[in-house]
């Protein structure tokens, strides 16, 4: 049973890879777009006196601004690629392949997991290489040791995959995915704290911020790599991100079950 | 003949927009502009407490950052709107299967593209007005506006955006792609044309590229007219330069399209 689950994950990941990498143009979306977006964010800071910002966010200065934004964009790439992929995933309904998937005995959870994993690693590797080069160039990144580096990476990858699974399930049963895309894509960049620290937001904006798991991941990464915090200081936020991830996985399972139940009863694949 | 084609395209596009895309595109674009303004507002008021570098007013002639960004975001709406509707027009015909009948009919290209352009200008103007109204609480200041200069700057800008969109249309038709080309162009404009910051912050060699993209001069003129209240005589050089760019882009765009249309049609029918 367990082996069968991973076979479905692998098969879906491979299918996703083959449908995405059919053209060299795909490298534009993987590398050129994130670099352009990152450059826009960097130059957006230019009109301001950074010393004034340091009053609110103590660790922000001229030397680590690039690192501050890069950390935000790396994390954003992880989550963003999954919003994009979930949007593409909804085309299973238009192609008529969703019915076939439901006729097969494949685990639904394995299906959405395979798709999420594939999109994640396909989309981020090129930008990660770019980011490493930038880190080397600017050389202001604090190395917290292997343990905390691994923890930081895990707190980025696992919530991102859970977010991807949740979105895949959501987009799978939605009649109108465009509006979901509008609601989820752009606000994530602003409210997730990619360009700006969430700490400066007013209360209403902070409440929206904490809906997006990206906010927690960015916070943890900046606290590890910019502020140099220890594991003990990070424990509360690590517990919080684990809880958020767990809730997302539970909602995904419930969505998949209720969507399929509804489809079986009514013959309609659009739950909402 | 030309006017009839223009009117027919205008009317058809309205019907398509009203029936096929009720509100999503409209809401999506308004939200985009809103997030741009909100980001600028948080940055300016909450993070930096209104403290700008002296270089900003040196480059722009104003210290009104919010009006600067709001106008940039609003004009960006127009650029995106023109590209989405005019550039994609022929490839959309191809995708919906109407390009063959369109090409067989003795349709006039100029009337067809102007029809597309006018329809989108009307829709985007509504979005732009709404975006400006939403931006009032965020601090846009229109008290110093020079109305004749603003209107003229805006009209020449529309011709320039139209020319740019024709070139993009040719590219889209040739590569049969809209997703990669349009998004790359949108991001390049955001980076190079001074939508949220003056281009003088970019490296010198990049600024040369910025100056040959009409959006840069267009934004300068509109900001000069709206924020600084500059009149037409004071901006004659800019007006002339943008006019030349607009004509150049339009001529190249039409010529390119004419050539690529043939290739695309042959491939499509093959």
Automatic annotation (TrEMBL), chain A:
It is a multi-pass membrane protein. InterPro entries: ABC2_TM (IPR013525), ABC2_TM_bact-type (IPR047817), Nod_factor_ABC_transporter (IPR051784). Its main location: membrane. Residues 25-259 form the ABC transmembrane type-2 domain. Keywords: Cell membrane, Membrane, Transmembrane, Transmembrane helix, Transport. It comes from the Bacteria. It is found in: Cell membrane; Membrane. The chain crosses the membrane at residues 25-45, 65-89, 109-135, 141-173, 194-214, 234-256. Signal peptide: none annotated. GO terms for cellular component: membrane. PROSITE patterns: ABC_TM2. GO terms for molecular function: ABC-type transporter activity. Belongs to the ABC-2 integral membrane protein family. This is Transport permease protein. The lineage of its organism: Bacteria, Bacillati, Bacillota, Tissierellia, Tissierellales.
UniProtKB/TrEMBL annotation, chain B:
It comes from Anaeromonas frigoriresistens. PANTHER family: ABC-TYPE MULTIDRUG TRANSPORT SYSTEM, PERMEASE COMPONENT, NODULATION PROTEIN J. This is Transport permease protein. It is found in: Cell membrane; Membrane. GO terms for molecular function: ABC-type transporter activity. It is a multi-pass membrane protein. The chain crosses the membrane at residues 21-45, 65-86, 128-145, 151-175, 182-199, 239-257. Keywords: Cell membrane, Membrane, Transmembrane, Transmembrane helix, Transport. The keyword Transport applies. GO terms for cellular component: ATP-binding cassette (ABC) transporter complex. InterPro entries: ABC2_TM (IPR013525), ABC2_TM_bact-type (IPR047817), ABC_2_transport (IPR000412), Nod_factor_ABC_transporter (IPR051784). Residues 28-260 form the ABC transmembrane type-2 domain. Belongs to the ABC-2 integral membrane protein family.
């Amino acid at each position: 049973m367990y082996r069968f689950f991973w076979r479905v994950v692998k098969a879906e990941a491979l299918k996703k890879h083959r449908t995405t990498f059919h053209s060299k143009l795909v490298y534009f979306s993987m590398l050129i777009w994130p670099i352009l977006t990152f450059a826009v964010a960097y130059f957006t800071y230019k009109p301001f006196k950074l010393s004034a910002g340091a009053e609110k966010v103590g660790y922000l200065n001229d030397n680590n601004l690039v690192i501050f934004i890069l950390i935000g964009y790396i994390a954003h790439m992880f989550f963003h690629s999954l919003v994009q992929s979930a949007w593409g995933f909804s085309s299973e309904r238009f192609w008529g392949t969703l019915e076939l998937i439901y006729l097969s005995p494949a685990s639904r959870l394995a299906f959405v997991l395979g798709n999420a994993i594939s999109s994640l690693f396909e989309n981020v590797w090129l930008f990660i290489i770019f980011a490493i080069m930038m880190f080397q160039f600017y050389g202001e990144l604090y190395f917290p040791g292997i343990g905390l580096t691994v923890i930081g990476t895990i707190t980025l990858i696992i919530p991102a995959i859970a977010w991807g699974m949740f979105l895949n399930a959501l987009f799978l049963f939605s009649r109108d995915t465009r509006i979901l895309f509008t609601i989820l894509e752009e606000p994530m960049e602003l409210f997730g704290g990619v360009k700006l620290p969430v700490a400066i937001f007013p209360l209403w904006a902070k409440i929206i911020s904490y809906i997006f798991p990206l906010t927690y991941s960015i916070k943890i990464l900046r606290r590890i790599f910019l502020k140099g915090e220890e594991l003990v200081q990070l424990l509360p936020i690590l517990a919080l991100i684990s809880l958020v991830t767990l809730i997302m996985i539970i909602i995904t399972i419930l969505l998949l079950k209720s969507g399929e139940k509804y489809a079986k009863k009514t013959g309609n694949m659009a739950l909402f | 003949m030309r006017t009839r084609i223009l009117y027919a395209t205008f009317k058809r596009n309205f019907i398509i927009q009203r029936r096929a895309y009720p509100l999503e595109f409209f809401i999506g674009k308004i939200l985009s502009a809103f997030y741009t303004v909100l980001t600028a507002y948080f940055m300016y008021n909450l993070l930096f407490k209104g403290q700008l570098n002296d270089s900003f007013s040196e480059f722009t002639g104003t210290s009104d950052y919010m009006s600067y960004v709001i106008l940039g975001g609003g004009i960006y709406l127009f650029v995106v709107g023109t590209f989405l509707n005019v550039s994609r027009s022929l490839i959309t015909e191809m995708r919906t299967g109407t390009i063959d009948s369109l090409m067989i009919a003795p349709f006039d290209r100029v009337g067809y593209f102007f029809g597309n352009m006018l329809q989108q200008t009307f829709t985007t103007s509504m979005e732009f007005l709404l975006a400006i109204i939403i931006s009032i609480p965020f601090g846009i200041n229109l008290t110093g506006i020079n109305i004749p200069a603003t209107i003229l700057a805006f009209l020449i800008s529309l011709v320039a955006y139209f020319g740019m969109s024709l070139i993009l249309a040719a590219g889209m038709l040739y590569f049969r792609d809209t997703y990669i080309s349009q998004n790359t162009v949108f991001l390049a404009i955001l980076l190079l044309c001074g939508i949220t910051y003056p281009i003088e912050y970019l490296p010198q060699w990049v600024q040369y590229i910025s100056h040959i993209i009409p959006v840069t001069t267009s934004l300068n003129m509109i900001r000069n007219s709206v924020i600084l209240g500059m009149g037409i005589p004071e901006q004659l050089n800019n007006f002339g330069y943008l006019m030349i760019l607009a004509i150049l882009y339009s001529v190249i765009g039409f010529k390119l399209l004419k050539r690529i249309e043939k290739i695309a049609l042959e491939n499509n029918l093959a």
